[in-house]
Amino acid sequence: MTDCHFIGKSVLIAQADGQARRRRESNRKLLEAARRLFVDNGYDATRPQDIARAAGVANGTFYLHFQDKEAVFLAFAEQAQDELVARYEENLDGVIGLGPRLEVILRTMIEYGSKHPGVLQAAFLDPVMIAPNNDDAWRIYDRISDFLSLALGSEVADREPESKRSLSLLSQGICGFMRHAMIFAGRKQLDVDEVINQVVNFVERGFERRTNALRN
User: Fold this and answer.
1) Average pLDDT for 17-23
2) Which of the residues 2, 147, 207, 212 has an alpha carbon 20 to 30 A from that of 103?
3) Is the Cβ–Cβ distance between 152 and 207 less than 8 Å?
4) Concatenated DSSP letters for 55-120?
């Protein structure tokens, strides 16, 4: 093959790499802009053209990445959950026991919420309200309870003989309880350590009572 052939191929590869980098960059900008606008203005008040403008890209570029506003919202929600799950995994490493692990989960959630105001509400509760018929929205909604099932599974198995059947349901209930407890604590400006202590004790007592009832 000639040198021209290799040079031409190298140019094509470089062009493809450049296009891929630009696509990744525009996707990043769109998600960052969507996150900011959804949190600050809400879903209904945010339009695709607003996101494109805030991202510094053309309106048409938005539709190269996302089908519609709902799609970019779900992408933002999943991105936020990726961040929180990564923090959970890091902070839970080496932590043993139902109470201690649940405390880490709660504290991590609170710290994330403080660092990213408004994101927890938007990314964890809003998807199924905005897209109730979208399977991805429900998958995102269930994701944290699924993680909780994994995070607490071995600890619950020691207390809950029927854990394989009930853990998913219990995790959904615990998630709902934690969400509302955290919202209430934030509104009332309650002491964080006291809130965590009360929630952990409540859940642990619930498991203890259920385990004792099943054994009797």
Assistant:
1) 74
2) 212
3) no
4) HTS-HHHHHHH-SSHHHHHHHHHHHHHHHHHHHHHHHHTT--SHHHHHHHHHHHHHHHHHHSTTHH
Tell me what the mean pLDDT of segment 102-131 comes to. Answer: 88
Domain boundaries, the chain: 1-66, 69-216
Q: Which amino acid is at 111?
A: E
Question: In residues, how long is the chain?
Answer: 216
Per CATH, the homologous superfamily of domain 69-216 is Tetracycline Repressor, domain 2 (1.10.357.10)
User: Quick one: fold of 1-66?
Assistant: Arc Repressor Mutant, subunit A (1.10.10)
3-class DSSP state for residue 46? coil
pLDDT of residue 62: 97
pLDDT, averaged across the chain:
83
Measure the CA–CA gap between 110 and 179, rounded to whole angstroms. Answer: 10
Amino acid identity, position 14 = A
**What CA–CA distance (Å, rounded) separates 205 from 48?**
48
- Give the predicted TM-score (pTM) of the model: 0.80
Check if the beta carbon of residue 85 is closer than 8 Å to that of residue 147: yes
Coil, helix or strand for 133? coil
